[in-house]
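dude i think i finally got it to work??
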Amino acid sequence: MEAFSQLMQGFADAVTPLNLLFALIGTLLGTAVGVLPGIGPAMTVALLLPITYVLEPTSAFIMFAGIYYGGMYGGSTTSILLNTPGESSSIMTALEGNLMAKAGRGAAALGTAAIGSFVAGTIATLALAFLAPVVVSLAVAIGPADYFALALLAFVAVSTVLGASPLRGLASLCIGLFLGLVGTDLLTGQQRFTLGVPQLSDGIDVVVVAVALFAVGEALHVASRLRHGPVRVMSTTGRFMTREDLRRSWKPWLRGTAFGFPFGALPAGGAEIPTFLSYATERRLTKHPEDFGKGAIEGVAGPEAANNAAAAGVLVPLLTLGLPTSATAAILLAAFQGYGIQPGPTLLTTESALVWTLIASLFIGNTMLLVLNLPLVGVWVKLLKIPRPYLYAGILMFASLGSYAVNADPFDLVILLVLGLLGFAMRRFGWPVAPAVIGLILGPVAETNLRRALAISDGDTSVLVSSPFSVVVLLVAVLAVVGPPVLRRFRRRQEVAA
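look at this
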């Protein structure tokens, strides 16, 4: 009941005219940037992150709520009309959605994606509001060794789940951990890996790294691959959702939500697995199996609902434990740290008004997206026809301006260029970018808690496995590394035997 009263207070703070304006700006900006080809929610938030630092925290995070959900909505539009998923969790939406668009049913595909996103986002945000205080009450008893174990689980989960190769994911994580070591050691006062450059003594700014790896690296990568010919956009003409479409969609919306939120809330979850599970479930339960592979509306409704529910679920470990389990969550954590706020068990106490206003603004942004964006599909389609040289030049310009605005230091532009080229090389050779950003953000947190735990135990490393919680978490981390190869080998043996 206390959570409900605090949520109502959050709504009271969020529905002021100024905050509603920021929510509207966030949804429009998020959708406009997210709908562009090759740009997913993580890059959208990274690109627009520096803009919000001129605002006070509550207004900034209300805008971020709109950008976050707006980027998700824009990603589904790109997946359906261009067959270009902005991130791996949108692959299933593109699979059937683009086939629907090719068959002249683009409007119905966009409709079920938008309404499914609204339904899933609303239910999942309600679950977030009532689950977060429960998780915080459990997290208060967690010690430094437990936090170190959770950080290791986040490292392993993100490195093995994101990307095609766990080894490349772990290598990307090591890059992020190295970047997190650059700067002055707070305990000893010694400078680490600064190469004698004074600007590096305070470390590398997370915002600059995020914008470089996501925005600059992605822009260079996409521009290098899509150099020839105009972008072919599917038509959005045709009938909107019919009564039959609604009848076939509402159960997949609910099932997708049931898949997405729990996986998003798990430190080892993410949005990829629930979207695949949702697609497989709808294909098995459908009464129209002949439509799959030709443009089945259930194949759009379920995965898109799972994707958006997982996006809300990701906020549970982020707000209550300070653990980002997706690329977008890592950027949001960087936004919190930019304001000197560290998410974790004390966040609901120290920044209660901010957290509940943020949760309330998720409802508001979700509603705005449904009301505004369906009639504006034609506008977003026109954005897709921007000539690509202008598009990527604009992205690089805004990335440069935003990175410079963080500290007003020209040296940040040098870092932006170097890390942007690194991000381009990582994509070129198939290295996922998200583990690097998460390693940069969580690396210092893991180091601090490891040192604290060893200091308490006088250097006895057995303290890392002294509590049942840390033992269970470390075992899950080991299973996340060892499990997939063992399962693949077992399946191969079964196939050979068969």
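The two ends are 57 Å apart (CA to CA).
im so relieved honestly
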